[in-house]
Each structure stands twice: as C-alpha cells, then as structure tokens.
Amino acid sequence: MNLIFVLIVAYLLGSIPPGLWIGKAFFNKDIRDYGSGNLGSTNSFRVLGKKAGIVTLVIDILKGTLATLLPTFAIFAGSGVHPLVAGMVAVVGHMFPIFAKFRGGKAVATSAGVVLGYQWPLFVIIIVAFLICLKLCKMVSLSSMAAALVALIYVLIYFFATGDWLLLLIIAAFVFFIFYRHRANIKRIKDGTEPKVSWL
C-alpha cells in the first residue's frame, strides 16, 4: 500500500502547475494561451514576468526534489520505492499534469530537481553547463538540451565507476523526454527562428 501511496503522491507533486496557477490568480492569464503555450518556467518568464518566472522555476525544481525524497520520509517507511523512481513519476506528472488537463511542461526543471534530491553535485554541474551555454547562445531551449547531454555524459562515466545503472537509466529517460518535448524548438533552431533571451 505504501508503494502505491508514494507513487500517487509523487505524481500529484509533479502535477502541480505553478505557472498556470500564478498566471490565473495574479494576472488573470492562462499562460497556455500565450507565448509558446507551455506551462514551464520559460514561458512563465516570457508571459508573466521575472518574479513569476522565478517562483515557477523554483517550485518546478523543488517538486522534483521533494518527490525524490519521499521514500526517505518516516511516513513512507518500507515502501520499497527507489528515490529515482519516485522522481521519475513526478517528472511524468509534470509533463502530463492531472491539474492542467494533462498539458504540462518540458521536463527540464523537474528533472533537475530530481537530480538535486539524489545527487546534488550533478545538479551543480548541470546548472553551470546550462548557464555557460545560455551565455554563449542566448537560447533557453538549446541550453536545456546541452545541459541534459552533459548530465548523460557524467552518469555514463559515473556508471563505469560505481555501477549505478538506475541513475544512468533515469537520466537517459530524462534526456529523451527533454529532447522529444523540445522537437518544435529544435526545428526553430535549425530555421534560425528560435527566440533568444536579451537579459544575459
């Protein structure tokens, strides 16, 4: 029973759509009707502004972290759920949220949150890689995909050193999710029409 409970809670955590709720509560806007139509933090920045974007980003990260830590809480003792599995379920919830008619984000921030909850040094590496790429290319989408590839390279090396196959499998799944959900961005990057940030 605890196993099912953990997975349900992890999914519900991942399903929390801060960008949608903040937009409706404070701006009378459904961000799915503006910008890219995405519920993630990038579109929240674009449509709702810096403060709302930051709050959305932090919540999207922390819901992945909290879901990853769920199996370590006393209330879920003996569930047998690996932290990475709970984190993965939260990422699925983020992409297909029950609270937003299953139209969710692109899995970047919540995946990063899972990494933060499981192995924070890799989270730091991902953030540094993202910021360096963003500084160079000015594109959030490309920077997100580049950071995902850096994470995959890291866990490949880590796997050969430690044999942590589940971390490799989960990160590989995250990379697939991120690239698949950025397929429209990839086309725009190829066409030279992908929006660029102006604040960095």
- The number of distinct β-strands equals 0
What's the main sheet like?
none
Radius of gyration: 17 Å
Unreliable stretches (pLDDT < 50, length at least 5) are none
- Coarse morphology: globular
Beta-strand residue fraction: under 5%
**N- to C-terminal separation?**
48 Å
What oligomeric state do the depicted chains represent? single chain
The H-and-E topology, N to C, reads as HHHHHHHHHH
Separate helix tally? 10
Topology of this protein?
Elements: H1 2-15, H2 18-26, H3 41-48, H4 50-69, H5 83-95, H6 108-118, H7 120-137, H8 140-162, H9 165-181, H10 183-191
Looking at this protein, list some descriptive labels.
single chain; 200 residues; mainly alpha
Molecular structure report:
The protein is mainly α and 200 residues long. It contains ten helices and no strands. It has helices at 2-15, 18-26, 41-48, 50-69, 83-95, 108-118, 120-137, 140-162, 165-181, 183-191. Helix 4 (50-69) packs across helix 6 and helix 5 runs parallel beside helix 9. It is globular, with a radius of gyration of 17 Å. The termini are far apart.
